[in-house]
Amino acid sequence: MSALIKSLALSALLLLGSGVASAYTLEEFEFDSPEQHDEFRDLIAKLRCLVCQNESLAGSQAELAQDLRNEVYRMMRAGQSEDEILDFLIERYGDFVLYDPPLKPSTYLLWFGPFVLIGIGAFVVVRTLLSKKQTQDDPLSEAERERLQALLDAKHAPRSPDS
Amino acid sequence: MIPELGHLALILALLLAIAQAGFPLAGSLTGNRPWMTMARPLAYGQLAFVAIAFAALVQAFLASDFSVLYVAQNSNSLLPDIYKISAVWGGHEGSLLLWALMMAGWGAAVAAFSRNLPLPVVARVIAVMGMVAIGFLLFMLLTSNPFERLFPVPPEGRDLNPLLQDFGLAIHPPMLYMGYVGFSVAFAFALAALIGGKLDAAWARWSRPWTTVAWVFLTIGIALGSWWAYYELGWGGWWFWDPVENASLMPWLVGTALIHSLAVTEKRAAFKSWTVLLAISAFSLSLLGTFLVRSGVLTSVHAFATDPERGLFILLFLCLVIGGSLALYAWRAPEVSEGGRFDLLSRESGLLLNNLLFVAFTVLVLFGTLAPLIYEAFNLGKISVGFPWFNKMFLALAPFLALLLGIGPATRWKHDEPWRLTKTLWIALALSIGMLALASLPAISGGDQWVPIGIALAAWLLFSHLTLVRERLKHKHGSWRQAMLADFSGNGRSFYGMVVAHLGVAMFIVGVTMVSNHEIEKDLRMSPGDSHEMAGYRFEFLGAQKVNGPNYRADQGHFIVYRGQRQIAELFPEKRSYLGGGMPMTEAAIDAGFFRDVYVSLGEAVGGGDWALRLYYKPYVRWIWLGAGLMALGGAIAVSDRRYRTARARRTAPTEAVAAKA
After folding, report:
1. Which residues of A touch B654 (CB under 8 A)?
2. Which of B465, B497, B517 is the last residue of a domain?
3. Do B557 and B430 lie in a common domain?
4. Are the CB atoms for A139 and B339 separated by under 8 Å?
5. Burial of B513 per CB tally in 10 Å (0-12, 13-18, 19+)
6. Can you tell me where the transmembrane regions are (chain B) (predicted)?
7. DSSP helix/strand/coil, B117
8. Residue A50 pLDDT > 80
């Protein structure tokens, strides 16, 4: 029963989160030129909707996302540059607001970590390749080979060399 | 009464699983034949009882028996019957039961189709599957019983999550689970081989078709999920790098590495311990995916109940399975001989690089999915790892994979000469470079450098594989068509399966490249009677009206799409409110085509009959799923290869006698 109540509460929360969205479309934000509109669009696509699951500010219909879109619009209209707007938002919400985490010491792990691991993998592969060149061919004994052949060769299925 | 029968059947299935994990294994170790022969009947019995439990739950859903808590939470008397059935796996408990059913099904299939395998091997494989089944059945009975009763009985159920009331999603989880669980067979074969201490080419040949079948299901399952997200979520994307998508992608990536590595093990008896490690990883990642999704460690639309008790159980189970199998691996693998010699330029090397790249992709996905958790755990701040990070990382590696994919299959086993390879592939190379130049024209590329690269790589795959087919048929008799047909009904299935799957990759690349760079998205407000022109299509909005569905009410927009003067489609996107409550759902309307989709999704009513809505033009988007479909088809063709069929028909003594000595 408590599980039922819990999930009901959860769906109510989700409902609140999604909000009774007021009218919105990106077209309704008016700019002096189409270029500026594109710039606006690109900018909000880089920002994360803070209350959503994996959605950008451009895609989200949540209320907070709409407020933030309006905020960004207002700042752009006030003549602030993209960097100024981003700095302001990062100051207020942290790096989390950026969809693409910036490259800085605390994110080195994120950006370079995988490549270190891949590098280690590549090293192992290269070592294997080089050692394989040196290994004795066919470590199987003659008896083993025959046994293997018996296992592999279906009497009725002639094997093609390269399939 | 019926739910109690279902519950009882689950308990009996657990007891059978315990016997299944114990007797055959003990028998195989002590040479006790009667105990080993128990494996097959136990596997069938396991399937029978889990199926009874599953049928009981299906019956509870069809009868809308809301005295069962799980039914009350996930169904509703107004729900159409087909969704009442799919609602069985719409929540946590039921999806576990589906998992258990499939596990038992795979176990019974191994029992039925392994007549030619030596008894000790069959006994060990089925025993390992029994061990995994114990884990899942215990999990269900201890923490997630789908048959739990509810009192007082509510008059109405809470309805299935509207997102899941859709045909694509009705079949997406079963396909995905077939894949996940299917890797348990590869896992069981690997463990059985480790237990027996006998890892050879025969082992690879036995487990190869099973692994490929599992991979085919997983491919279809993931593609269905992507397709569903595209048309159902209403923002036109096909992959979101959502933790749950990633959880299903990781086993797929490792599974892809595995089916390639198995080829080397079968043909050349090399990479044996590496293949075993991949088999263990593929299944472990399937379990990890389940853990990530179910435990609520990562929040997502897919996360059902979040319950620490369940999380703890899965964590323990995971540690036991992964830790246990790795310990066994560490103990046994050093004894495994590592196969024959091969040169730097050889098929083996190519497949090793394939494995390196696929494992690298897996590491990327795992890292990106867990990075936010790692950062939080070590107080490094909250970071957001989303599509930009994943896209950059994948794009850094994917071109190498595609290049290699054109070369690898043309390379000979063991040793090849650079000049021979060049001679074979130079035409394909020249044609691809031609495509690169052609696609670099601004009219095609639209000024983006990825378009020519993607097109050229796809062309490279197409032409190099056509070359392979030509080379293969060169020395055969008759016209190329006759030769190909003869080859196909002869021993060529695994070759043609490979070609089809690789052409699927080419198709996928074209789809991704084109839709990522040339799609057009418009976000606008329209009044009834308005028209909007986009990408050569004119969208006329005729207005929206209220319509009633079986368990929802909707606003339905009416659009007519023209190309020039010609009407090409009439679209009815909907915004649905389900009577069971929850968020309103967008039901996009799509005019699908081979070369492009036209997509309309309704946003919000803005007042005065106006609507906020989105229009999309999606060139080549179908190629993404068609490509995945070709990959799956290729796998299916490869599995139908004659050597597996004859192997199945053959029950001769030598195999049994030789392997029994092991």
Report:
1. 150-151
2. B517
3. no
4. yes
5. buried
6. 6-26, 47-72, 96-114, 121-142, 177-197, 209-229, 249-265, 274-292, 312-331, 352-374, 394-413, 425-444, 450-469, 495-516, 620-640
7. coil
8. no
- Residues 517-536 on B with a CB inside 8 Å of A are 522-525
Return the SS3 of B205.
helix
Buried b / exposed e along B204-213 (16+ C-beta atoms within 10 A): bbbbbbbbbb
**Residues in chain A within 8 Å Cβ distance of B413:** 162
Q: Which residues of A touch B648 (CB under 8 A)?
A: none
**Minimal Cβ distance to A101: which of B202, B384, B612:** B384
Confidence of residue B647 (pLDDT cuts 50, 70, 90): low
Predicted local distance difference test score (pLDDT) of residue B288: 84
Work out how many CB contacts closer than 8 A connect A with B.
193
Round to whole Å and give the CA distance between A124 and B304: 40
Q: CA angle at residue B538 from B535 to B543, to 5 degrees?
A: 135
Is there a contact between A4 and B641 if contact means CB atoms under 8 Å apart? no
Q: How far is the first Cα of chain A from the last one, in angstroms, to the nearest whole number?
A: 59
Burial of residue B271, with CB atoms counted within 10 A of its CB: 0-12 exposed, 13-18 middle, 19 or more buried:
buried
B504-525 pLDDT per residue, tens: 999 999 999 999 989 988 888 8
Which CATH fold would you assign to the domain A16-102? Answer: Helicase, Ruva Protein; domain 3 (1.10.8)
Return the domain boundaries, chain A.
16-102, 106-152
* Residue B478 sits in the same domain as residue B445: yes
Structure tokens at B52: 């009874």
Which residues in chain B are contacts of A135 at CB distance < 8 A? 338, 340-341
Cβ distance of B525 and A139 shorter than 8 Å: no
The pTM is what? 0.88
Average pLDDT over residues B640-646: 76
In a domain, B636, yes or no: no
Instruction: Scan residues 218-277 of B and list those with Cβ closer than 8 Å to A.
Output: 235, 240-242, 269-270
Res. B4: pLDDT tops 70: yes
Question: What mean pLDDT is reported for chain B?
Answer: 88
Domain that holds residue B430: 407-517
B243 pLDDT tier (thresholds 50, 70, 90)? confident
CA torsion B244→B402→B223→B250, rounded to 10°? -30
Question: How, if at all, do strands B574-578 and B537-548 pair?
Answer: unpaired
Query: To the nearest whole percent, how much of chain B has pLDDT over 70?
Result: 94
Across the interface, whether the CB atoms of A101 and B241 are under 8 A apart is answered: no
Binding-face residues of B in 344-363 toward A, CB within 8 A: 344, 348-349, 352-353, 356, 359-360, 363
Instruction: Report the share of chain A in percent with pLDDT over 70.
Output: 68
B161, closest residue in chain A (CA to CA): A11
- Answer yes or no: do B360 and A121 touch at CB < 8 A: yes
Structure confidence by residue, pLDDT tens digits, B411-456: 999 888 999 999 999 999 999 999 999 999 888 877 788 899 999 9
Q: Is the pLDDT of residue B314 over 90?
A: no
In contact, B280 and B251? CB cutoff 8 Å: no
Query: How far A157 CA lies from chain B's nearest CA (Å)?
Result: 6
How far is residue B64's CA from residue B66's CA, in Å, rounded to a whole number?
6
B293 and chain A: CB distance < 8 Å anywhere? Answer: no
Instruction: Tell me which chain A residues have a C-beta less than 8 angstroms from the C-beta of B339.
Output: 139
